[in-house]
Amino acid sequence: MKKNKMVNLKINNQPVSVPEGSTVLQAAEKLNIHIPTLCNHDDLCVAGNCRVCVVEHKGARTLLAGCATPAAEGMDIMTNSLKVRNARKHVVELLLSEHRADCTKCYRNQNCELQELANEYSFGDHIFLDLVGDHEAMIDDASCAIIKDDSKCIRCQRCVRTCSQLQKVSAIAVSGKGSEMKISTFHDRPISHVVCTNCGQCVNRCPTGALTEKNYIDSVWDAIYDSGKHVVVQTAPAVRVALGEELGYDPGERVTGKMVTALKQLGFDSVLDTDFTADLTIMEEGTELLTRLKKALVEQDKETALPMTTSCSPGWVKFIEHKFPEFLPNVSTCKSPQQMFGALAKTYYADNRGVDPENIVSVSIMPCTAKKFEANRPEMRDSGYKDVDYVLTTREFAVMIKQAGIDFRTLEPSGYDSLMGDSTGAGVIFGATGGVMEAAIRTAYEIVTGKPVPFDNLNITPVRGMEGVKEASLKIEGCLKEWSFLEGVELKTAIAHGLTNANKVMTAVRNGEADYHFIEIMACPGGCIGGGGQPIPTNMTIRQSRIDAIYEEDMSLPIRKSHENPEVQAIYKDFLGEPNGHKSHELLHTHYIERVPY
Amino acid sequence: MMETKKISKVDLIFEDIDPREILTRVKGMSATEIIEEVLESGLKGRGGAGFPTGMKWKFCSEEKEKDKYIVCNADEGEPGTFKDREILDRVAQKVYAGMTIAGKAVGAQTGIVYLRGEYKFLLPQLRAELEKFHKMIHELGFDFRIDFRIGSGAYICGEESALFESIEGRRGEPRNKPPYPTSSGLFGKPTSINNVETLVNSVIILKYGSEFYKKMGTQFSTGAKVFSVSGDTPKPGIYELELGMSLLEFVNEFGDGDTKAVQVGGAAGFCVPRKLFASTVIGFEGVPTGGSMKLFNSSRSMYNVLHNYLDFFNEESCGQCTPCRVGCQQLLKGVESVKRGESKSTYIDELVKLAATMKVASKCGLGQSVGNAFNSIVENFREEIIY
Question: Quick check: is A332 catalytic?
Answer without folding.
Answer: yes
